[in-house]
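User: Fold this one for me? It's Helicase C-terminal domain-containing protein.
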Amino acid sequence: MKLSPILCFTKSRETVHMLFQLVHAAELIRTDAAARGININRVKCVVNYDAPQYIRTYIHRFGRTARAGKTGLAFTFLFGVQVKLLG
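Assistant: Here's what I get for Helicase C-terminal domain-containing protein.
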């Protein structure tokens, strides 16, 4: 598995994004802050390791997949209180 670290510094973020696109890495792990302002084509799946606090954040995260009439997958891991809140 190829992983590309992205730091929250603009120059580094842009550099890693460019490298990610060039090497066609399969996975990219990012925080919400690191994901802002970056558009990656061909996203087939988004995995949340935590549930976002706001529905607009949830929609924004999963909006990275299934663009332009394409299908995509989205998963969210829920823990403890998060499961109870949805129950």
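One thing worth pointing out: Residues 10-86 form a domain with the Rossmann fold fold (CATH 3.40.50.300).
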